[in-house]
């Protein structure tokens, strides 16, 4: 049996602290691996790119930093950022065409290797489904393995808000998705990989968390991760040990 130590994380959250060797073992024998998308699977933060594209980059970048640092609820930050951006459907489509999301080096190989080993791969993102679908297609991840926020538009294409009923629109939403996956598929071991506070707080219900700092290092996450990597090559190397 793995001995797990519960340590208080923020208000009312408990984060499972596994040792480095336990985390590596859980990763090697995972039934499913869930990746955050922005600043993890892709190099950028999708919402910041959208804001830049719509000419309101600086205001939104500052709010993203606060949200990722855990100093405001995720839903508040998302609502406020989107009310500044107010992007149209046309602008979103043009962003994906003109500035497609840049995959983080090594992610394609890692996802391929996980698929070869019959480990299910999911993308769980506080970003937008239309952008995440583009990423999933490049990585051969089925579209029904995506959990992300949905933008809403009026019939004329103008911004109409976002779907607040999605679990990923809430703080703690990634954990809700993982609980749902465990129930739906019967997974015993699920590993969450990501760069931000919302990824860390998904463990539990995730069996283990791996912090990723290949694009941006968030100090709070680094300090609380028993395994913190800065390249996907480190994870590939671990899988080769079997």
From TrEMBL:
Its cofactor is Mg(2+). It is an enzyme of class 3 (hydrolase). InterPro entries: HAD-like_SerB, HAD-like_sf, HAD_sf, PSP. One of its GO terms (molecular function) is magnesium ion binding. CDD domains: HAD_PSP_eu. Pathway: Amino-acid biosynthesis; L-serine biosynthesis; L-serine from 3-phospho-D-glycerate: step 3/3. It catalyses: O-phospho-D-serine + H2O = D-serine + phosphate; O-phospho-L-serine + H2O = L-serine + phosphate. Keywords: Amino-acid biosynthesis, Hydrolase, Magnesium, Metal-binding, Serine biosynthesis. Its EC number is 3.1.3.3. Gene3D superfamilies: HAD superfamily/HAD-like, Phosphoserine phosphatase, domain 2. One of its GO terms (biological process) is L-serine biosynthetic process. The active site is at 36 (nucleophile), 38 (proton donor). GO terms for cellular component: cytoplasm. PANTHER family: PHOSPHOSERINE PHOSPHATASE. Belongs to the HAD-like hydrolase superfamily. SerB family. Catalyzes the last irreversible step in the biosynthesis of L-serine from carbohydrates, the dephosphorylation of O-phospho-L-serine to L-serine. L-serine can then be used in protein synthesis, to produce other amino acids, in nucleotide metabolism or in glutathione synthesis, or can be racemized to D-serine, a neuromodulator. May also act on O-phospho-D-serine. This is Phosphoserine phosphatase. It comes from Lates japonicus (Japanese lates).
